[in-house]
Amino acid sequence: MRLTSEGFPLGRALLHSHCSSQFDTLASGFILIDVNPSTRRAFLSMLPSLSLLGAVKRKSNVLADLGGSIDINPQLLTAIHGAGFDGFIETSPEARLKLKPQDYGALQLYAIRAALPRFEDSMDDAAGEVKTLVELAAVQGAGAVITTHPGLSGNGAFRPVDLERKARILDIAGAICAARGLTFLYQNQSLEFTGNAAEERALMVRTDPKKVSYFLDAGEAMRGGADPAAFFAANQKRIAGIRLSDFKDDGLVPFGQGSPPAAAMASAIEKNRWTGWLVAPLNIDKNERAVAGFVGSFKATRELIRSTFGM
Q: What are the sequence ranges of the domains in the chain?
């Protein structure tokens, strides 16, 4: 990784970017432009005038989260890209994604996601399953692997030994991903945010920041009784992505149709100048076979993200 002559990284994140403490491990996706001192001084002298034009928009990658029931095909991916999404995250890839990287068109497969392998009985077996998942991600052209787990407890009162084992498998998964050139993210569920997000906070303390990043599911955090915007603000250096899940009557609905903390999240993102992933679950009717039937929903979701977050 190259910086400018005075240590300034400039450019656009192709995968994602965030805080300086994670920069070493997560900046491999940056295009960096070297700027000599005289050019940089001239640019800085222009900033007061530029500020009159309004804030410069930061670039975050806005991704589509494709659930396990969706039949992925080139026509669908073309529609998602046409709606303005930069890429997608795939669940259950081994069973459903039969496409090759060249079939994705202009849309990029950012990550594949799977359940965290069972680590309670054998850490070696769990690590073996992670290796299989990582190889699958690499073959399919993904830049990251996401795993998720239902949580150790329903009230935040977990056993320390269980937490240590879970943190250990996350570090192992992160190391396996790094060795293959991929990023590892852990996605929370609601139970990890019960008891003032006790389990999620403890995992962040006990996992290695150089190996494990976090994929904050804002809707699930709310279901666990937490304030996702406040949690993000306090922990944004570890958070590489935010999943904009939204719920109504205990069911997942398109972003904006429930009660998402959109304004608070947007304010926290702006204040921290965060440029990670914004990910929207795309709800597709299982009985709707024609892509045209849900293209409008894709576009509406993307436009709401743009108007809310400026991205």
A: 1-56, 61-309
Q: What is the rounded distance in angstroms from the CA atom of residue 136 to the CA atom of residue 129?
A: 11
Number of Cβ atoms within 10 Å of the Cβ of 259: 11
Neighbour count for residue 288 (Cβ, 10 Å): 11
pTM above 0.90, yes or no: no
- Span 184-193, pLDDT tens digits: 999 999 999 9
> DSSP string of 135-181?
HHHHHHT-SEEEEE---S-SSS---HHHHHHHHHHHHHHHHHHHHTT
CA distance 208 to 62: 26
The per-residue b/e assignment along 182-202, b for 16 or more CB within 10 angstroms, e otherwise, is: bbbbbbbbbbbbbbebbbbbb
Q: Which residues make Cβ contacts (< 8 Å) with residue 270, sequence separation at least 6?
A: 310
> What is the CATH class of 61-309?
alpha beta
